[in-house]
Write a structure and sequence with these properties.
Blueprint: H1 2-13, H2 24-29, H3 34-63, H4 72-94, H5 96-102, H6 113-124, H7 129-157, H8 169-184
């Protein structure tokens, strides 16, 4: 039951994008098409999950036993950068169409503060390895959910008659704010 609560809390109640405002750059940048949003979401879920495992192992096998906690952030950043390079190479090899669709945003996962936030939150909350993995899956699923919902709305907005002053970034930010308010409705479920 505790693992379900961790998953739902990370995915819905404490959504990284709509509650903590982490990962806003890819949320706005890659949410114009649903196909790109799904691909980016899957890449983020993969990177978050592997980051949770590797950062937990580094934290509990090296940093804490040898009292090197001051290296937590640099070591987590190194892990994230390495994983993103690996994912980028795999996507480029497997599907060049997805690679082109993601464009510059794929390497930018390295600077996605949601990934670093996940590693730091899991460390601060003293999750076990299994709890860290479930937390990562929930956070990644919540990130993907927010991204796909935003992409669906933005695709529909292309067909709508939006007043000229609200076209582009203004309507995108208004929709993001409304989505954040909507997700606040999940507070109190758990």
């Amino acid at each position: 039951m505790e693992l379900i609560i961790i998953f739902l809390s990370a995915a819905l109640i404490n959504n990284f994008v709509l509650s903590y405002f982490l990962g806003i750059c890819p949320f706005i940048g890659v949410s114009s098409k649903i196909s790109s949003a799904v691909s980016m979401g899957l890449a983020v879920i993969f990177v978050m999950t592997i980051t949770a495992i590797v950062s937990w192992l580094i934290n509990h096998m090296i940093l804490i036993p040898y009292h090197l906690e001051f290296l937590t952030i640099p070591s987590f950043i190194l892990v994230i950068a390495s994983l993103v390079q690996f994912v980028e190479m795999v996507i480029k090899k497997v599907s060049s169409a997805i690679y082109r669709a993601l464009g510059i945003f794929l390497p930018l996962i390295t600077t996605n503060c949601a990934i670093l936030g996940l590693a730091l939150f899991a460390s601060m909350r003293e999750y076990t390895l299994i709890q860290s993995v479930i937390f990562a899956l929930g956070a990644g699923s919540g990130f993907t959910l927010a991204l796909v919902i935003m992409a669906g709305i933005r695709e529909e907005l292309e067909l709508a008659n939006v007043p000229k002053p609200f076209q582009g970034a203004p309507i995108t930010l208004i929709v993001a704010g409304l989505l954040a308010l909507t997700f606040m409705g999940f507070a109190g479920i758990i």
